Amino acid sequence: MSIFDNLQNSADKGTNIGKEYASKTLEHTKLKAFQVTALTISMIVKLFFIGSLAVLGFVFLAVSSAIALGDYLENIALGYLFVGLFFLVIAIIIYLFRKYFDKKVIYKISKIFFD
After folding, report:
1. How many CB atoms within 10 Å of residue 80?
2. Reduced to 3 states, what is the DSSP secondary structure of residue 7?
3. In the chain, where are the structural domains located?
């Protein structure tokens, strides 16, 4: 009978260890999900506030640059045209390098998620 008792004890220990492992894995997964969610929300909030202030600053900068350039060229429409073309060229350059930006974003997010 002692063989059966030892087998029963070993099976019980294995079951308990398996349950504990599953419990710890679930806890770790919940913590990791919380970490990723908190970092994502934090980045979105920071991006919103900093981005909105930066866009507002760029709008004022663009309008004032267009007016100053228009005064220099003695034609306000040319000032606005040159500033608009400048932003268009910048947008085209960013579009051409979009894959580089994608790789950078994926690299940074993967470091956060998998570490």
Report:
1. 17
2. helix
3. 2-114
Q: Which two tokens stand for residue 1?
A: 């009978």
What is the distance between the alpha carbons of residues 59 and 88, in angstroms, rounded to a whole number?
A: 14
pLDDT at 95 over 70: yes
Give the up-direction half-sphere exposure of residue 45: CA atoms within 13 A in the CB hemisphere: 6
Separation CA 70–CA 48 (nearest Å): 32
Q: Which tens digit of pLDDT belongs to each residue from 44-68?
A: 999 999 999 999 999 999 999 999 9
Q: For residues 51 and 48, what is the distance between their CA atoms, to the nearest angstrom?
A: 5
Tell whether the model's pLDDT for residue 1 goes beyond 60.
Answer: no
Q: Are 78 and 70 in contact (CB under 8 A)?
A: yes
DSSP class of 97: T
Q: In whole angstroms, what is the distance from residue 77 CA to residue 89 CA?
A: 18
